[in-house]
Amino acid sequence: MSTRIFLATLGLALAGFTPTAASANDKAIIVLDASGSMWGQIDGKTKIEIARQTLTEVLGGIPDTLDLGLIAYGHREKGSCSDIEEIVRPEPGTRDAISAAVRKLNPKGKTPIADAVEQAAISLAYTEDKATVIVITDGIETCNADPCALASELEAAGIDFTAHVIGFGLTAEEGRKVACLAENTGGRYLQASNAAELAGALTETVAAQPAPAPEPAPKPQPEMLEKNILFTASLTAESSDNDPEGTWEAFLMNGDTPGKDNVLYSYAMPLSEHLDPGRYLVRFSKDLVKVEQVVETSATELLTRNFVLDAGIIRVSVAADEAAEVDDSARFDIKVAGGETGGYGQGTFVVPAGDVQLTASLGEASTEESLVLKAGEVVDRKLVAAAGVLAADVTYSDGGPLVEDGSLRVDVLSAKMSIDGKRKDITGGYGPGNRFKLAPGDYLLRAELGAASVEEPVTVKKGEMTPVSVNLNAGVLNVRAPGAYRIDILPAKADLQGRREPIGGSYGEEFQITAPPGDYKAVATMSGDGQAPDKELPVSVSAAERTEVTIE
C-alpha cells in the first residue's frame, strides 16, 4: 500500500514539468542523502531501497524537456565532509541516468547538507536563472556548516531560487534544524515518516511551481523553560553539608546505551542548565567517587535530582615527625577498592565510604595507615614518615678543601650485609652537597671519585640533620704528553704477582685523575701501532694537592 501511494504522488509531482508547463528555465536538481543512516529501516525496508525503487519507477514519466540533475552525498567515503558528487548534470532526458545512478548508491558517510545545496545552486546558475533544489535527507547537518545562513545567502543572490526539504524519518527537533533551508528561500519543509509520506512529499515539492507559501514556523510555547534541570550532590542522603564541587557530564541515551561524547560538561554546584528534551545518562564525579543516574528532561518542567555519593572527606598531610610542618616534597597515596589517587604535601579528597589505605613517603622513609571511612564523615590524617636528614660533604683531606667535582658519587648503603656479603643500596647522588632524607637508623656512607674511595658508618636520627664530612684522602694528578696516543697511570710498585694494573687512563695528550696519595708511574703510549717507543715518568700524589707533570 505504501509503495502504490508513493508512486502515485511522485507521478503527480513530476507532472508539474509537462511539456506545456516546462520552459527553457525549468531546471531542478534532486539532492539525495546517501549517508550511512540511510541503511535505517521503515516498514521493514531500508530507506535507500525505498528511494531507489520509487525514483526508478517514477522518473519514467518525466518529460524530456525538463533539465533535471542529481547530486548525492555520503556515498563514497566514511567520515568525509567533502564527499559530494554531482552524478547527473541538469540536462534534458536524464531520467534513465538518474535511475541508474540511484541504484548504484551505497550509503556510508556523513551529511554535508549545506555544501551539497550550495553546489546544486551553482550548477543551476542560480544567479542567472530560475533554480529549484529538492533535498531528501534522513539526518541533520554533520559537517560544521550553517544551512540556515546558506539559505538566506542563496535567496538574496539568486534570481528565483527555491529549496524544498523533505525530512525522511526525522524527529520534530531534527526537522527544525533543516526546515530553515526551505523557509528562508520560499520553499516548503515536509516531514515523511514512511514510504507513503515520502512519496506525497516528493509530489508536493517537485510538482509545485511555484511553491506555495511556507507554513509559518510554530510559535514558541510560553511555558518553555530557559533552564530545565537543577542537580545537586551530597555525601549522604540525609545531609547536604559538605556538598563537594566536582564534574558534571551528560550523555544522550540511544536506547539503553549512552552516547560516547558528552553533550554537557560543567563544574557548577548546583548545576542549573538546559538540556534538550530527551533521556540522558548524567554523571557526577569527584576524586575517587562517581555516581550516575538516567534522567528524562522536558521542555516545560523543571527536573530536580540529588546525587548521593555515599562518601566521606579525607584531609591528609605528611611530615617528618608529629611536631614538624607539612613537607611539600612528601608523597602520599589514597587507595580504595575502586581506585586510587594521591599528591604531595597535603590535600583534601572525596572518598567512597569503606576501607581506605593511606601511604606516605618522605625520601627513603615511609609509613602507612588503614581506616574505615563512614559516609558523611570528615577525617583529618597527618601521616608521619619519620625521617632525618643526612648532610654528606666530602673533602680531599682531613679538614682540607671540599670536593666540588660533579663526577663525585656518594651512596648510602645498609649498615648490615646480607648473608651473601652484599649491602643494599638505599639512595645516592652525584656532585657536592648531597642531602638525603632517611628513616632513622644506621647506614654506611660511600664516596668515590676517580681511583679514590672511602666508606664511613653514619647514624641518622628522627627529625634531625646529621652532618657528615668524609675524608676522601686524595689528590689530583694532571699529566700531559704532547703527541701521545694514550696516557695511563700505574702503581710505582708491582703487586705480589708482579703485575701493575692501571688505576686510570684515556686516549689523547692529556689525562687527569683523582687518586690516593702515593707514588705512581705515568706511561705515554706514543703510537697506536707500536712503532714509537713508550715514554714513562715517575709521579707522586699528595692529599689535597694538585700535581701537574709533562712527559717530554
TrEMBL record:
Organism, as annotated: Hoeflea marina
InterPro entries linked: VWF_A, vWFA_dom_sf
Keyword Signal appears in the UniProt entry: yes
Stretch list, region Disordered: 528-552
Keyword Signal: yes
Residues spanning the signal sequence: 1-24
SUPFAM superfamilies, A to Z: vWA-like (SSF53300)
Domain VWFA: 27-206
Keywords assigned: Signal
Name of this protein: Ca-activated chloride channel family protein
